[in-house]
Design a protein that fits this description.
With 226 residues, the protein is of the alpha/beta class. The chain has 6 helices and 14 strands. The structure holds nickel (II) ion and manganese (II) ion (MN).
């Protein structure tokens, strides 16, 4: 899989020729000012919840590319009202086969209102299983024991976990989360974008190393193959 980081919790993941974009928040993110939004070409856009720092560029990218939006029923209804037509609503527990592989919507412990104050459904995470790898995208979440259920059904190769603290888990809880889903590879997200979630990179890397976790903090715009 090829992973490109666009800052905050936004990643483009190419799985056997299908590109999936998670939680686009690029335009308002000063750290991502060098990213050309209209050059991003997803086939699917997945949303974990309705907060502005996860949905800012959904309409622009979806209208420009025709990508299919996959999110909670409530978020899908909101974006249908804003003109999107290529949508697939889901809710927690749903396990659906898409062209990129199997997608399961799983629990997250957070909140999910939309920028206009309307209800955004419950916040979610996702598990994706392709032909050769499986990964967990936690969304914005606190640590919770339901993560252990993921390891019962999937061999998780790597996990996107929030590490910024304050609104989500910090690195210590992210390491526990990695243990719950039984992976050694963490791709950090949801840090440094705002003063509340600024982190000391050396300090979190040391903590991860001590716990035998490979923690990847990608540069914004960087691509890796995993
Ligand atoms: Ni949030
Ligand atoms: Mn957030």
């Amino acid at each position: 899989m090829e992973i490109t980081y666009y800052g905050h919790a936004c990643f483009l993941i190419n799985i056997h020729g299908k590109a999936i974009l998670f939680d686009p928040f690029i335009g308002p993110n000063k750290l991502a000012a060098h990213i050309e939004i209209d050059a991003i070409q997803p086939d699917f856009i997945l949303l974990s919840h309705g907060h502005q720092d996860h949905i800012a560029d959904v309409e622009r990218i979806a209208k420009h590319t025709g990508a299919q939006l996959i999110a909670s029923h409530e978020l899908v209804e909101y974006f249908k009202n804003n003109g999107l037509t290529n949508v697939h609503p889901m809710n927690h527990g749903g396990r659906i086969q898409f062209e990129f592989g199997e997608l399961k919507m799983v629990n997250a412990v957070h909140s999910s209102s939309l920028p206009d104050g309307s209800y955004g459904g419950n916040p979610a995470g996702f598990v994706i299983k392709s032909a050769d790898q499986a990964f967990y995208y936690a969304g914005d979440t606190a640590l919770h024991l339901d993560m252990q259920l993921i390891a019962e059904d999937y061999n998780i190769d790597f996990a996107f976990l929030p590490i910024g603290n304050n609104f989500t888990m910090d690195i210590r809880d992210a390491i526990k989360a990695a243990n719950f889903v039984q992976t050694e590879k963490i791709i950090g997200m949801h840090y440094d974008t705002f003063p509340y979630i600024e982190i000391d990179h050396d300090a979190v890397k040391k903590i991860a190393e001590k716990e035998n976790k490979a923690l990847l903090l990608m540069k914004i715009g960087e691509k890796v193959n995993i």
